[in-house]
Amino acid sequence: MLLSIIIVNYNVSYFLEQCLYSVEKALRSAGLSEEPQAAAEILVFDNHSTDGSRDYLPPKFPRVRFFFNGENIGFGAANNRALAESAGEVVLFLNPDTILPEDLFKAALSFLRDHPRAGAMGFRMVDGAGRYLKESRRGYPSPWVAFCKLGGLTALFPRSRPFAGYYLGHLPEDQSSPAPILSGACLFVTRQALERTGGFDERFFMYAEDIDLSHRIGQAGFVNYYIADPPILHFKGESTHKDARYIRQFYKAMSQFRRKHSGKGVRLAANRIMDAAIWARAGIAAAGQLFHRRTGAEGPMGPAWVTGDPKTASLLRTRLSGMGWALASSPGEASRIIYCEGDDYSFGQIIASLRDAAKAGKARKGRNAGDRIALIHAAGSSSLVGSPSKAGQGEAYRL
């Protein structure tokens, strides 16, 4: 088998529904889904979701192999369990809160064929408002790079080679290049590299496991690549709630990684200083999140503008009207824009539309296009999903 796609789900059934529609369409576009000898497989490992994923998803996707665990064993461990069941020469670790363009697998597999030293590959990611996600590629978090990130120098000088090494900010986002660290949200890894590295380190319950795996792939003699085109959509943060537990877990993972890979070469005093900086940053993040929760309350839902594939959009308008949704008579009146995928409007076109809206908003000095929330609806699906930024939890609706 050529390709295995592994997705770990935790309480995001509607986001995963849209993701799986995009995955299956991309497989068809690449000619990887023809029966009876399909060249690809999709494995979903559910980490004890309590949102009805077990009843909702399997009937919709009969060709997907679902594994339902009795407890949440963490992101890395869940990926490893699914990896043990997979057979692909190339493995894609994919977050459930992603949308893939139809030409992604063609581009990925072609690149790997042409670059035999490649061990892993990640693509440019944009968020639910079409903005570039800097974590699409990163540099190795050495003590200096970590100091610049934690101390705010990276934010002050986002395009500086000395100060912005964490996000490789000196490189253009539209330029493909080797990158030491790739995001686990959409991470292609060759079976050969996984056999040499052993997969994810399960000591990381959540976060930093992709940094750790990327680093070990590089240590094993492979090259990691960031690919600028085609971009994918990542509803950043939808797989986790931005609460105090999330903040503790995130910064605990940062500290774990630093100790694993630099503890022997860094003096005890330096270790303590770095730990103090990490946890100080955690406190700032926690305070900021509390402020966001208290001041970020949203007003009543406004009218929605439905666009995209004509057939899907027409069916959705009828459905939403029956549910009592207010529908806008023009895009300018809408507080939500619903992009409908279908035969005449692809997932790739939706991503392009979001990026165009982000560019238009940036041209208006940082305002998002009308400050509207974008929602996505795949033809045949029973949900709408969207998230304007990584700061909040986003929206999901069942039809």
Structure, explained:
- This protein has 12 helices and 16 strands.
- The protein has 3 domains: 3-234, Spore Coat Polysaccharide Biosynthesis Protein SpsA, Chain A (Alpha-Beta Complex), CATH 3.90.550; 244-295; 304-398, no CATH class.
- Strands 1, 2, 3, 4, 5, 6, 8, 10 and 11 form a 9-stranded mixed β-sheet that branches. Strands 12-13-14 form a 3-stranded parallel β-sheet, covered by helices on one side.
- The chain is globular.
- It has 399 residues and is an alpha/beta fold.
- The two termini are 36 Å apart.
- Mean pLDDT is 85; it is low at 289-300 and 366-370.
In short:
The protein has helices at residues 13-29, 53-56, 75-85, 104-114, 143-151, 153-156, 191-197, 209-219, 244-262, 268-295, 310-322, 347-363; strands at residues 3-9, 40-46, 65-68, 90-94, 98-99, 118-126, 137-138, 177-178, 181-182, 186-190, 223-234, 304-308, 336-340, 373-377, 383-386, 395-398. With 399 residues, it is α/β, with parallel strands linked by helices.
